[in-house]
Amino acid sequence: MARKSTQRVSYVLSPPDAPGGHRLGVNGLAVDTISSTLYSAGRDGVICAWDLNLNLRTRNDLHDFTQNNTSSRSSTATSFRRQVQAHTHWINDIILTQNNSTLVSASSDTTVRAWRPAADDHAPAVIGKHTDYVKCLATPQPDADWVASGSLDHKIYLWDINGGGERLKIDVSEYDKTPKGSVYALSAKGSILASGGPDSIVRIWDSKTGKLITKFVGHTDNVRSILLNRDADTILTASSDQTVKVWSMAAGRCMHTLTMHNDSVWSLYSDHPQLSVFYSSDRSGLVAKTDTRNAPDIDQGICVAALQENDGVFKVVAAGGHIWTATPKSSIHRWSDVDVTAEIEASAPSPLYRHSSSVASPTPSDDNKNDPLSSNQKIPASSILILSNAATFPNPMHREADVVSLSVSSLRAPTDILLDEGITLATPLQSLPQETIEGQHGMIKHITLNDRKRALTQDTAGDVVLWDLLKCVPIKFFGKRHLDDVASEVNTTETIANWCTLHTRTGRLSVILEQNRCFDGEIYVDQADLPDTDTNSYREDQRINFGKWILRYLFDGIVKEEVRRDEVYRQALKLKYEQKGECDYDVLDNIALPTVAIPSSPETPIPPSSPRMKGAGATRSAMAPGMSIGIGTPNMTSPFPELHNSSNGPFTNDGCVGKDPTGSFDYFTNAMKRPSTDAADSTAKSRSSDEQPPPSAPISGPLEPEKEERSKKGTTLFGKKFQMTFPKKSKTSTETKPIAEEKTEESDKSSEKERPFDDNFRGVIDRIHADYDAYSAANPCKDIETLITPTPENEAPVLNIPPHIGILIQEENPDSAVAADLYRGTVGTVRQDIDIFEKAAPAWLADLLLRNIVPFKEIPKIAFSLKPYQDSLPEVVKPDMTAPNNSSRLNANRMLRAKKILAYVAERIDPQNAETPSEDALKPEEYLELYCQNTLIPMDMTLATIRTHLWRTGNDMVLVYKANGRLKIPVPVEDGEAEDKKAGVDLASAETTGADQRSQVNGKHTDTDSTGAMLAQSLPESDVAS
User: What's an example GO BP annotation here (predicted)?
Assistant: First the structure.
C-alpha cells in the first residue's frame, strides 16, 4: 500500500538583524553586463544581487582589453543590493533569461523557480518541479521563453518561463536503461540540447521532439560542465576525470582531449561565439584561461594559470576584464582577467609546465606586477599550461602581443622537452583577489539539549550560541568554543520525549514539527521558566505540551483572524434570516435544539459535548495529556470516546472530561493482566475504523460512569485489578445499539446530503460553517455561539515570538526525495496570507488552533517494581502468584514524578492516615524516601529520567522505598492481604489526581517540590533489596 503524503510545519530561527550576503558556500554565479549586476546563489537557498559598479561592456577587439581594465579599476567597490530566500535547500545553479530580466534557479528542494528582480513585490515563482535534486539549467539564447533543467531523477524538463508549465520531458534512463542516468550538466543552442552525468556519456537531444540524436563516449568519470558554440556544431565538456574534451557534431567524435588540469574539472565558462576563449576551474582551486583563436589547432593554443583559490571552484564567470569565483566559502572573489595576447617572457626556466596544487607564491606588491592586465607586463613562462600531451610550447620569440603566429620550426615536441629539462610545476598568475564580496557566518552544527526546549548551534566561524526553541530567541553567546564542551556545561539530566527535528542545512536553525510526534514532549509548569505571577494560576504538577504551546503562538495571527471572520459569518447568517422576515421569536423560544457533532477530520469523528451553541453542537476540546491534575490521565486524552472503556472512562454523557465526585483516582496500572473491558475496547476500535459514521452524522457519546458505585468504594487510590469491579456491559449495549441502528436506516439519505470537505485547514472551517448553516436553517434568527475555541492560556502561556521568524508548511510525498513547500511566510505576515495558508495548512493544525484538539496517540509507559527497604515497611503490591516469577509489575507514564510514587506508597502502607488526614500531617515525601541503584531520587525526577540516568539497563526498574524516621508507620500485618486484593493499581490515573489526591493523604491542597541536584546519599551495598 502506497504511503500517503503528510504535511508538516517548520519554523526557522535567525537573528533579526542579520546582514545581507550568503551564510554558506556559493554554487552559482551570473553576470548582467548591462546593469553591472552580479547574481549569486548558494547552499543557504538565498539569491543575492550585487551592484558591481564596473564598466562591463563587451570587448569588440583585443585592443580594448587594457582600456576597459583601467576604467574598471577606478570604480568603487561592490555593494549589496538585495537578496531573497528563494529556496529551502541548496541552490545548485542559476541562469539569466529573457534578456536578463528573469533569473531562474535550480535547487535541491526539487523545484525550479523564476525570479524577476525588477518586481519588488513578487517572490520567486515555481515554474517546474522534479522528484529529486535539480542540478543544472540551460537556455538556448538570451531571449528564449523556456529553460531546461536536469535532475538526479534522470529527467530533463523544458519549462515555460512565464509559468506555462512543462513543455517537454526527456527520460534519460528510458533510452539506455542506465542506473546512472542523473543529469549534472546541460547546455542548449537552437534545437540542440546536450546533457552529461555520472555515466560519463554526453548525450545530444532534439529539444523540439525530445528524441536522442547521438551520444559521445570518451570520458571516464562524471561529466560536470558542458558548453555549446553558437552553431551547435562544437561541444566542450569538463569531467571529474581531469580532462576537457572537444567534440565535433559533424565528425561525431572527440577531436581533442585537453589535460591542463591535474584535478576534477568542475566548471566551464565562455562568452565567445565559437568557444575560442574559455575558462575552466577545478577541485584544487585552479582557474585556467585558454585561447585558441589564432592557433592552427586547439592543441597549439595558449593556456594560462590565471588564479589560485584556496578551495575548489564550483563556478567561474568573467566579464569586462574581471573573473568571479564561487567556492565552498560564503564569500565571492573578484580577480583581474588575464590578457592571453600579451607577450610571453623569453627567460623561461622550462618550456613545459604542469599545474601545482600547492599554494602559489604571493603576488608581488608592486602595482605593475600585481595587475596581470598591465600593458607592460608579460606572461611568465612559469604560468603557461600545456593543453594536452600532444601540444607544443609556444615559442616567445615568434609570438607578438596581438597576433599568434606559430611555425612548425619554432615548435618542439613535448617528448623532446621532457628529455631536455623535465617537468616544472606551473605557478598561477594570481593568488590574491582584487576584491572579496564578504559573506556571513551560517550555522553548520547543532545539538538538542535534554530539556528539549533549548539547542546549541555553531557557525562557520566557530561561535557557539544557545537558543530557546519556544521563544525563538538566542539565550547566550559562548564565543569560539568546542560545541561538545559547551553542551556538557549547559545540559541537564532531564529525559523528555523528542517532539521536533532540527537541521542547519541552509545555515539557519530550522525546527520541524510533524503530526505524529510534535505532541510527544511535555514540560512541568515549574520548569517552564514562566514568570512567578503566571505559575500561581496553574495547578500543581501541571504539564504543558511543547507542540501545542509553540504552534498556538506561531499562528497567533491566524487564530485572531479566524475568530474575527467567524464572528462576521455568524452575524451574517442571522442577518440573512432577519431580512427575509422569517423570525418568530415567540416560536423560537420553544424549539428543542438538536446536537450536531463536528468531526475532527473527514476520517474520524469526535465526541459531542455540551453544546455551547444551541443546536449547533459545539465540541469542547479534549485536554492535553496531564495538562491539569483534575481532568486528564497521563495518556493523551483521546477525542474518540469509543476507543476507551465506557464504564471507567473519564468522559461523561455530555462529552466533558469528568472526574470521580469522591476525588479518588487510580495511580497505577498492573501490566500483567488486562482489564476485562479489553474485548469491548477492541470491538469499539473495530467499529470506529470499519463502520465509521459520516462526518455530518451524530455519533454515540461515551457512557456516564457509575458514580454511585464508585462513591461506595470509599476514597481509595487503588485500580481495577484489586477492586475486582466489572464493566457495565449491559449499559453499553443498550445505549449504543439504537444509535447504530438509526444511523444504518438513514445512511442512504445522509450519504446523499453529505457535503465533501477538503482535508486541509479550509476544510475544517467549511465543516464549522456547515453546522452554522444547518442550525440557522432550523432556527432562523437565533443567536449562534461560536465553535472556535482556541487553546486557553492556562494550557499554553503567552509566547511573544519575534515577527521575523520564518514559517513553512511542507508536504512529504513518498515520490519525492525532499519535502515540498506549500506555504512560506513569517510570524508577522502569516495573517495577511490567510487565504493561501488555509489551502496549504493541514486539517490537524486547524483542529489544534481552532478547537484545541490534538491527534490521539498512546503514550509509552515505563514498567517498574516497588519494594520496601529490608522489608522494614509493608509491601505496596503483593506478588502476583499467577504471573511469571511471582512478580507484580507496575506501568506508569514516563512523566510521572517520584513524589507521586511516594504518595501512592504512603496510601498503601498507611491507609488509615490517608483516608482521614489531619491538617498538620506530613506529606509523603517528607517522611518517605525513594531509591534507585542505591541513589536517593529527587522528588521532581520523572520515571523517564530515573530509567535513563540512574537505572541504565534494559530490564524493568526496581525502586526501593524506606522511611526516614519522621513518622511512625504501622508494622505490616498478615490480614492485609484481603485488603490488597481489593486495591487497584492503575498507573494511567497517577498524574490526574493532583490536589484531590494530596487531600486524601494529608488534608492539604498545596505541595512543595523537593527539587534540586541529585543527592549523593546511597544505601549500604549489603542493604540493597533483592
Answer: double-strand break repair via homologous recombination
